[in-house]
Design brief:
Elements lengths: L5 E2 L2 E2 L40 E7 L5 E4 L11 E4 L2 H11 L6 H11 L14 E3 L6 E4 L9 E5 L22
Helix pairs in contact: 1-2
Length: about 180
């Protein structure tokens, strides 16, 4: 039976087993597979503990998409993060206040938003979306505030280089 990563019912070879001198035609394989050591085993993604819930409001004019491993503190400044529903609701009220100009509405909403400070353990600093690798989430200005999103700490050696132009190397460590 064909499935993700399979060709003619046979599993796709492990990446380490692929011969670099051989040309492989990816169009002959189904998309969506993930190489795992034991496909029959139960696999848990993002099991790092310290998860957090955030509300997000897009105050920009266009959709903003965030990939699975992007540091949330470095995303587009038009995304505002809220750690509780009450603050998100207050910001939504401010953003629809007809007595304020649009730039005044956004400035007032920014004051209510959770800061992107370098406080370890405080989302969004040091956190990313809790989605599968390679996945992403799109935030639309029409759907503000978003549903609550789940975030997880960035793993590995906890360094996020090269996401912002002019960001100094000393500013990229997350611990």
């Amino acid at each position: 039976m064909a499935g993700p990563g399979r060709k003619l019912g046979l599993p796709l070879p492990k990446p380490s087993a692929l011969d670099p001198s051989t040309s492989y035609d990816p169009s002959q394989y189904e998309v969506g597979g993930v190489w795992v050591k034991d496909p029959a085993a139960h696999h848990v993604l993002n099991d790092q503990g310290n998860t957090a819930s955030l509300y997000v409001i897009n105050v920009g004019e266009r959709d903003i998409q965030i990939g699975s491993h992007i540091h949330l503190a470095d995303v587009n400044r038009d995304l505002l993060f809220f750690t509780d529903e009450d603050k998100a609701a207050q910001a939504e009220n401010v953003l629809t206040d007809p007595s304020l100009e649009r730039d005044e509405q956004i400035a007032a909403a920014r004051k209510l938003a959770h800061g992107r400070s370098k406080t370890p353990g405080q989302a969004p600093w040091g956190y990313r979306l809790d989605v599968a690798p390679g996945d992403s989430k799109r935030f639309s200005p029409e759907n503000s505030p978003s549903d609550v999103i789940e975030v997880v700490p960035i793993g590995g050696n906890r360094r996020v280089p090269g996401l912002r132009k002019g960001k100094k190397a000393c500013d990229i460590a997350l611990d």
